[in-house]
Amino acid sequence: MAAVSFTCPRCCGVFQVASTLAGQQVACPHCRSLVTLPAAGTAARPLPLPAPPPSSGPPSPPANVGRAVIDVRPPRSRARRRLLRNLLLWGFGLGIIGLVMAILLIVGPVRKK
Predict the structure, then answer these.
(1) What is the distance between the alpha carbons of residues 44 and 5, in angstroms, rounded to a whole number?
(2) pTM to 2 decimals?
(3) Share of the chain residues as helix, strand and coil, in percent rounded to the nearest 5
(4) pLDDT band, very low/low/confident/very high, at 66 (cuts 50, 70, 90)
(5) Where are the domains of the chain?
(6) Which of 43, 15, 45, 17 is nearest to 31 (CA)?
């Protein structure tokens, strides 16, 4: 029993099948689609590419131009938003304290006369 390499036309996954299964349908191990194996002795031929349509004028813009882009990222959780807000507040608070301390160091201590 010889093994024959075969490429799935749907997912382009390469897998090996027994030569006794020639001409039968098998499930692709990668995408699980049913694939009809070529009959024994026939070579698999690549499909010809379709001819491009004749151009009559300037090319048209892509179909998605001018449409809104959908954000597929998951929304941030409430805990993450709270953490970011707290970090931002602490950063501003420490920045203000540092600014006051720098001013006091530059001006020096205030002395009463």
Answers:
(1) 11
(2) 0.34
(3) 30, 15, 55
(4) low
(5) 3-36, 79-113
(6) 15
